[in-house]
Amino acid sequence: MAKVVSDFVRVASTSEIPEGKMKKVLVGSQQVLVSNVKGKYYAIGNVCTHLGGPLDRGVLEGREVQCPLHGSRFDVTSGEVKRGPATRPEPVYDIKVEAGSVLVRSK
Ligand code: FES
User: Judging by beta carbons within 10 Å of its beta carbon (0-12, 13-18, 19+), is residue 89 exposed, middle or buried?
Assistant: First the structure.
């Protein structure tokens, strides 16, 4: 059976997410957090793996986002947990920039 290849979806213009900022976007039904760290864009899940906190309402410091609910921290470049109580990493999404648009690939 042929493998289904997911497509990249345009989620924002680059000007909507300046350096040091982040934004929640929807890719299909998935909530994704797009971050701009030093001019590079990254995409991980926006729903905290602890108890579902909205990471886009938290704080981005360098490459770490802190969940607003109980303070878990995730590396936005790898999805890795840097501080609990969360223990499971966030999913990482493929992302690219084309002609001033940010595109994320659905899973
Ligand atoms: S829901 Fe994010 S740390 Fe608890």
Answer: middle
Kindly give the distance from the C-alpha atom of residue 91 to the centroid of ligand 1, in angstroms, as a whole number.
15
Atom 3 of ligand 1, residue of closest alpha carbon: 70
Q: What's the half-sphere exposure (Cβ side, CA atoms, 13 Å) at 5? A: 3
**Single pTM value for the model:** 0.94
Amino acid 95 reads I
Q: pLDDT by residue (tens digit) across 31-74?
A: 999 999 999 999 999 999 999 999 999 999 999 999 999 999 99
Q: Domain locations in the chain? A: 14-105
Answer yes or no: CATH 2.60.120.260 is held by domain 14-105: no
Q: How far is CA 55 from CA 49, 65, 98, in A?
A: 10, 7, 25
Single out the residue of 74, 73, 70, 68 nearest to residue 91, CA to CA.
74
